[in-house]
Design goal:
mainly beta; SH3 type barrels; six-stranded antiparallel β-sheet; two-stranded antiparallel sheet
Protein backbone atom coordinates (compact mmCIF):
# COMPACT_ATOMS: atom_id res chain seq x y z
CA UNK A 1 0.00 0.00 0.00
CA UNK A 2 2.84 2.52 0.61
CA UNK A 3 3.65 2.50 -3.13
CA UNK A 4 0.27 4.13 -3.87
CA UNK A 5 1.26 7.18 -1.80
CA UNK A 6 4.46 7.67 -3.82
CA UNK A 7 4.28 10.89 -5.88
CA UNK A 8 3.60 10.10 -9.55
CA UNK A 9 2.14 6.62 -8.93
CA UNK A 10 -1.39 6.46 -10.31
CA UNK A 11 -2.11 2.75 -9.87
CA UNK A 12 -0.40 -0.60 -9.51
CA UNK A 13 -0.94 -3.02 -12.40
CA UNK A 14 -2.24 -6.42 -11.49
CA UNK A 15 -5.11 -8.77 -10.95
CA UNK A 16 -7.17 -7.76 -7.95
CA UNK A 17 -4.77 -6.98 -5.12
CA UNK A 18 -1.91 -9.01 -6.64
CA UNK A 19 0.70 -6.98 -8.61
CA UNK A 20 1.69 -8.40 -12.02
CA UNK A 21 4.94 -7.61 -13.86
CA UNK A 22 5.00 -6.38 -17.46
CA UNK A 23 6.15 -8.91 -20.07
CA UNK A 24 9.90 -8.53 -20.75
CA UNK A 25 9.40 -9.60 -24.41
CA UNK A 26 6.68 -6.99 -24.98
CA UNK A 27 8.66 -4.18 -23.37
CA UNK A 28 11.94 -5.06 -25.17
CA UNK A 29 10.11 -5.31 -28.54
CA UNK A 30 8.76 -1.79 -28.19
CA UNK A 31 12.09 -0.45 -26.86
CA UNK A 32 13.93 -2.00 -29.83
CA UNK A 33 11.67 -0.27 -32.35
CA UNK A 34 12.03 3.12 -30.63
CA UNK A 35 15.80 2.73 -30.10
CA UNK A 36 16.29 1.96 -33.82
CA UNK A 37 14.22 4.98 -34.91
CA UNK A 38 11.50 2.95 -36.63
CA UNK A 39 8.45 5.12 -37.34
CA UNK A 40 6.00 3.96 -34.66
CA UNK A 41 2.76 5.59 -33.69
CA UNK A 42 0.27 4.99 -30.89
CA UNK A 43 -2.37 2.46 -31.85
CA UNK A 44 -5.41 0.96 -30.09
CA UNK A 45 -4.69 -2.27 -28.22
CA UNK A 46 -5.36 -5.35 -30.40
CA UNK A 47 -6.48 -8.57 -28.72
CA UNK A 48 -6.68 -10.69 -31.86
CA UNK A 49 -4.32 -11.37 -34.76
CA UNK A 50 -1.35 -13.44 -35.68
CA UNK A 51 1.75 -13.07 -33.55
CA UNK A 52 4.99 -13.05 -35.57
CA UNK A 53 8.69 -12.56 -34.89
CA UNK A 54 10.99 -10.38 -37.03
CA UNK A 55 13.88 -12.67 -38.06
CA UNK A 56 16.31 -10.27 -39.75
CA UNK A 57 17.41 -6.66 -39.73
CA UNK A 58 17.73 -4.24 -36.83
CA UNK A 59 14.54 -5.52 -35.19
CA UNK A 60 15.45 -9.25 -35.29
CA UNK A 61 13.79 -11.00 -32.34
CA UNK A 62 11.01 -8.42 -32.03
CA UNK A 63 7.53 -9.93 -31.76
CA UNK A 64 4.29 -8.28 -32.83
CA UNK A 65 0.76 -8.92 -34.06
CA UNK A 66 0.02 -8.72 -37.78
CA UNK A 67 -2.50 -6.03 -38.61
CA UNK A 68 -2.33 -6.07 -42.43
CA UNK A 69 -0.16 -7.17 -45.34
CA UNK A 70 -0.71 -4.34 -47.85
CA UNK A 71 1.43 -2.59 -49.04
CA UNK A 72 3.95 -3.37 -46.28
CA UNK A 73 3.53 -5.75 -43.37
CA UNK A 74 2.00 -3.79 -40.51
CA UNK A 75 2.71 -5.08 -37.00
CA UNK A 76 1.26 -4.08 -33.67
CA UNK A 77 3.71 -4.12 -30.75
CA UNK A 78 1.66 -4.42 -27.56
CA UNK A 79 2.14 -4.16 -23.83
CA UNK A 80 -0.74 -6.47 -22.83
CA UNK A 81 -0.99 -5.50 -19.19
CA UNK A 82 -1.11 -1.78 -20.00
CA UNK A 83 -3.39 -2.34 -23.02
CA UNK A 84 -1.21 0.03 -25.07
CA UNK A 85 0.15 -0.64 -28.55
CA UNK A 86 2.32 0.90 -31.28
CA UNK A 87 2.16 0.38 -35.04
CA UNK A 88 5.17 -0.25 -37.29
CA UNK A 89 5.78 -1.48 -40.85
CA UNK A 90 8.39 -4.05 -41.95
CA UNK A 91 9.19 -6.02 -45.10
CA UNK A 92 7.28 -9.30 -45.63
CA UNK A 93 10.45 -11.42 -45.77
CA UNK A 94 11.61 -10.31 -42.34
CA UNK A 95 9.07 -12.24 -40.28
CA UNK A 96 8.39 -15.78 -39.08
CA UNK A 97 5.50 -17.25 -37.13
CA UNK A 98 7.09 -20.59 -36.21
CA UNK A 99 6.57 -21.51 -32.58
CA UNK A 100 4.33 -18.54 -31.83
CA UNK A 101 0.68 -18.78 -30.88
CA UNK A 102 -1.96 -17.68 -33.37
CA UNK A 103 -5.51 -16.49 -32.84
CA UNK A 104 -8.30 -15.60 -35.25
CA UNK A 105 -8.14 -12.16 -36.84
CA UNK A 106 -10.60 -10.49 -39.15
CA UNK A 107 -8.39 -7.99 -40.98
CA UNK A 108 -6.84 -7.72 -44.46
Amino acid sequence: MPILTTPGVIQVLGSGNIPVALSDVEVSSLQSAVRNNYPVQPFPYVRTGKRVRIEEGLLAGTEGIVLSFKPALRLILSITLLQKSALLEVEHGQISDSGLSCVAFSGD
